[in-house]
Each structure stands twice: as C-alpha cells, then as structure tokens.
Amino acid sequence: MRIRAIVAAVSGALALSALAVPAAQAAGSAPNVTFSNVKVNKGSSMVVGTTKASFSVTYTVTHASTLKATDFATGPAIYRGTSVTKPSDLFVSDEPGTCTAASTTVLNCKATLVFTVNGDWDLTNSEAGSWNVGALAVGDGGTKWTGGLGTTKVLRAAKLTADATPEPVKKGKTITVSGSLTRANWDTHKSGGYAGQSVKLQFRKSGSSTYTTLKTITSSSTGALKTTTTATVDGYYRYSFAGTSTSPAVNATGDYVDVQ
Q1: How would you label 124-135 residue by residue, b for 16+ Cβ within 10 Å and e otherwise?
Q2: Residues pairing with 217 in the sheet
Q3: pLDDT for 29-63, tens place per residue?
C-alpha cells in the first residue's frame, strides 16, 4: 500500500504527526462532521506530466453546533481499494484546507492535492486512471475518514505534434504529415513514445473553424506518426488523439500549408 500523508494543524497549536494507515477511530472521539459538494480540479481530470503538479479541491463541511471550526482540520483524499479506511493506494492533501464560514455550522473549504513524479511521494505508471474521492477531519480526539464522495482521474500527460511538408505545395501534389505521440512516464520521470495508438489526421480549410478527419493511422513503436494526403486548398493539418483510460485526449497544433 502507498500512502501520502497529511500534516494538520488543529486549534492553532496542536500539530498532528503524519497520518499512518487509516484506522477506525474510537466512538465519539473524532470530529462530528460531514462532507459534501466535493469537487476535484473543478470536475476535470488531473493531468500530470514529468514535473510537480498541483490541483485545487473545494468542499463543504457541516459540523455539530457544539463544535468550533478551530477545533478540527480537514482535507481531501483520493484512494483506490474497497474503502478509504482500507485503501490499496491513498493520497491526501499535504496541508489542511482553508475554510470560511457560510453559517454557524457550515464551512466552505479549499485545499490542494500535490503530485510529483520524482520525489518522496511520486506517482507511478500503475496509478494512472480512476480514483475514488474522500475526505478526513482531524481533531485532538481522533480522525474521521469519509469515503464515497465521488470519483476523479489522475492521468499521464500526453503530447502530439504535426509537421506537414512541403510548404508551399502545388495543388494535386502529395503532402507528407509527420509527427509524434508521447506521454509522461512516471516510472522513468521522462516522456516517451506512446506506441500502438489510433490517431486521426485532420484538416481545416483556411477561413474555417472546423477540422475534418481525413484518415486514421497507428503510432509506431516509438510513438512516431507519418502519412500522406493530397493537397487541395490552403489550410491546416493536425493529428488528433482521443485519449485512453490513463492519458487524456490531445490535439497537435495545426500546421499551415499554402497550396498554389
């Protein structure tokens, strides 16, 4: 099991040590709170490349009227496994969330999830994909873990390039479009070719805002792309990748070709 820990400051002075494996707390010892409206990265996937990446998480905390907001700290968590208290993988925020009072018992909070690919708590390729969303509340009497608050994705960043030649070209002649599809490798801390993936060659006529698919090709063992098409009118050529369960969709920047 891989766990990334949270360090929470409670009551302004009590600093809790890094949390260990989640465990059931003693009855009545944990903060009496509930979590709702948890949104990770504004509802979008968290796409991580080969450097440190941070993503915001917003959530609402409702606490008992007998509990002061200064008596506990909270933070978001993402996990895989049967539950947040028995995870196979777990990441939580490095720092507790910052909250503002919406009422005497409701707090609107914001925290940050931080990922690295070359540090002490780095991601590995096997961790790309879907995660469950949870949260925790830490008080001087214990910790309350809450799971089942939604799902999110942590994906390996992808990059796509396209280069159309020759430029310019005579109408009716052949255009060769080369490029590459790469993605972050969290195990090696570098980017590498994404092999065997279906990629669309697309064209946008000059003056238009819409790309049309010309053909679909497959990336080579090194992620290389190369195909040909016939020059008809001025416009932009690009490659488009629909994404997978572990990497997001991505489009290359269109390369303009002047047809004479």
Answers
A1: eeebbeebbbbb
A2: 199
A3: 799 999 999 999 999 999 999 999 999 999 999 99
Q: What is the pLDDT of residues 65-89, one digit of tens each?
A: 999 999 999 999 999 999 999 999 9
Amino acid identity at 93: S
Please give the helix or strand (H or E) that residue 91 lies within, else none: strand 86-92
Would you give the DSSP letter of residue 206?
Answer: T
Two structure tokens written together for 136: 């925790």
**What are 206's two structure tokens?**
């000059």
Q: Where are the beta strands (DSSP E) in 119-234?
A: 129-139, 142-146, 151-156, 158-165, 174-185, 190-193, 198-205, 212-218, 224-230
CA 112/CA 106 separation, integer angstroms: 20
- pTM of this structure: 0.88
Please give the backbone phi and psi of residue 258, each rounded to the nearest 5 degrees, phi first: -90, 120
Whether the bond into 76 is cis, omega within 30 of 0: no
